[in-house]
Design goal:
The chain is mainly β. It is built from 1 helix and 9 strands.
Length: 229
């Protein structure tokens, strides 16, 4: 297991926004989403992706950069080693997508359905989630740097052995999240629902509000197998 991150205090650094071309510079995709394919400088919408009736999309090794994806349905897609750089994802359905080993850099998800997305062993750098549903998202052994959760539901998220630095939350729901063997540095969790956490001791050094003390405290008591009678 890698050593824990050292930076334990201070305000988290916010994620950098995607660097996107102007709207008139974006084009419609000239190719389908496919394994090892490339979308560069595109504005893609529902008609640019396969219809759900065609089955789950196979797009392992695909790369998307400096692009906007809007209202695309990629539920249950297979996207191992996916690379997104300077991408905004709006209103897309990515539920059940498997993207082990993905690399996401300067990516913003807005109003997306991300239930059950698998991003294990992935790298998320400068990534924000705004008004998304991401229950049961799998981030096992992932590395998260400068990530923000805003008005996003992540119940039962799996962050086992994840390494997290510069995490901020605003109205996030992390109830039932698994944090065993994870490490956190410069995490501001104020405004998040932190009830029923597993492995809550991983939050050592994080910032919470007085209203969250009871929920986190109960999780720590349960982890230590302390009985209250």
């Amino acid at each position: 297991m890698p050593p824990p991150l050292r930076r334990r205090s201070g305000s988290p650094r916010p994620p950098a926004a995607p660097s996107l071309p102007r709207r008139e510079q974006l084009q419609t995709p000239r190719s389908d989403l496919e394994p090892d394919g490339l979308w560069d400088g595109v504005w893609a919408s529902a008609e640019d992706a396969p219809a759900p009736a065609e089955g789950a999309v196979q797009m392992g090794g695909a790369e998307i950069r400096e692009s906007i994806l809007q209202n695309i349905r990629l539920s249950s897609a297979r996207a191992d080693s996916l690379r997104l750089t300077d991408v905004e994802v709006r209103g897309c359905d990515l539920s059940g997508m498997v993207a082990d080993g993905a690399t996401l850099t300067r990516v913003r998800f807005v109003g997306c359905r991300l239930t059950g997305v698998v991003l294990s062993d992935s790298r998320l750098t400068d990534v924000s989630f705004d008004d998304c549903h991401a229950d049961m998202i799998n981030l096992r052994m992932a590395r998260l740097h400068r990530v923000r959760l805003s008005s996003t539901r992540c119940r039962q998220a799996d962050l086992m052995e994840a390494r997290v630095a510069d995490l901020s939350t605003d109205g996030a729901d992390l109830r039932g999240a698994t944090l065993d063997k994870a490490s956190f540095a410069a995490a501001d969790l104020r405004g998040a629902d932190l009830e029923d956490l597993r492995g809550a001791s991983a939050l050592r050094g994080s910032l919470i509000s007085p209203e969250q003390v009871l929920g986190v405290g109960l999780a720590l008591i349960a982890e230590a197998d302390i009985r209250v009678e």
